[in-house]
Amino acid sequence: MPTKRKKEKSLSGVNLKAQLGSLIKLQEIDTQIYGLRAEKASKPDQVKALEDSFESKKAYMAELEKNSLDLTKQKKDKELELASKEGAAVKLQGQLYSLKTNKEYQTMLHQIQDAKADTSIIEDKILEVLEEMDKLKVKVDQERLKIKEEEKLFISEKGKIEERVKEIDDKLSHLEADRKQAVIDVEPKILSQYERILKSRDGLAIVTVKDNSCGGCNMFVPPQVINLIKMYERIITCETCNRMLYIDEVN
Fold first, then answer.
1. For the chain, which terminus, N or C, has the lower number of CB atoms within 10 Å?
2. 6 pLDDT band (50/70/90 cuts)?
């Protein structure tokens, strides 16, 4: 019982009903502050998501361009190979009439036919690469246009987020000023209790009791506790969530 007497003594001479009214007004400000701070805290993740999405599209574009370069290199390599095979065939053709025996002649003809067959295969490969290059070029051109549009969208959306952060900072500045004025009306000990609950309960320290339920955790509030609230002798808190309780008549 000494604790109860001490608590009542600490609030002696205090208009608790008025204090609750001041806390309610303070809570309205803090609810806005906590909401805006939470919104602001989410903005870097939103920007990061936009950046990641845009970077993935750029990476896809870079991959297409690399594939295009690879195909260009394949084409050049095949063209060099073709030139080598054609040169070999011409050289063999030039040696054909210097041969002395029929066997040597037939062997050389066979080599020339093989060289020409090789050049034909290489030519087909070059045509295949050219077809792939043409298809890829169309895709690359389409993706370049998409990237330009995506970049515009990215810059626009990022700008909106940055503008919203500025708005939040401006609102927070005004709310912080309002809060400094609001706390003046709250007794230091009551304010200390309120601040402690506010930090531990995600920015919600004082709630109304409606239909015998706590406005913070929705747990049942017994009639005898409601009677204690109406007596305005001391701060009554929820036995479950520890938030300060009040009833609408304080407004």
1. N
2. very low
